[in-house]
What does this fold into?
Amino acid sequence: MTIDWIAVDWGTTNLRVWAMGPGGVLASATSDDGMGKLDRDRFEPALLGLIAPWLAEGKRTEVVACGMVGSRQGWHEAPYRTVPCAPLEPSSLVSVPTRDARLSVRLVPGLKQTSPADVMRGEETQVAGVLALSPGYDGIICLPGTHSKWAHVSAGEVVSFQTFMTGEMFALLSQASVLRHGMAGDGWDADAFADGLSDALSRPERIGAKLFGIRAEGLISGLSPDAARARLSGLLIGVELAAARPYWLGQAVTIVGSEGVAQSYVRALQTQGVDPRMVSGTEAVLAGLTAARARVAA
It folds into this structure.
């Protein structure tokens, strides 16, 4: 297999790599060697553990990487760029010194917003991917996840963005709070999700009481674990949507992410009269990395 370059998405928990050819992806590999478990001197070996079969002796192979690999705790810091700006600027990619002469590694910087203070790292590449897939797109890009992002893009730039800790709060509440006692399993109840969503959107200031109500109803009325999990999700996404209303109200919205999480946001926005389109996270990150690499090569 002869490859042109290697695309890398390196997050806190996972490392994903793709061997890229003229027509797109030739091969892919993943590992759990995320930034969170690596010391600085272990990044290069972790990468080589996945891509060594793709490298040719006597040839330097381009590697373009995004995500937490460029954080202060990562392999090599790629300083944040300040919005408003294009999500990717090829000239700002940061080169990483490597021991293996077969590697030529560059990292994509994240974005920062000074007021209100906010940062993103990795999502800027997905935003760039959406713009590469839909040239001229103006509107909102929502990136659900552990820390959900809402980015306003116009004229090819990220104008502003806001982060919500919705995914992390769901994990903490469902696994480490008193609510955990009624949330065993991984089932789902669509009606319970809709009820939680409606409650949070109509009365977001009552979120604390509504959350404890999940525990109380489990004790008194036998609320099922599936319904409890779904209601918690609906409440948290509802509060997020209520706070992010200035972003999505009256705007074109694109949601980037995995099918399950992204679909929950799609359903939630549809209840508010918004019909978002979806782009897979993998498709977006590959389109963004490809665009960055292509511009550098040009």
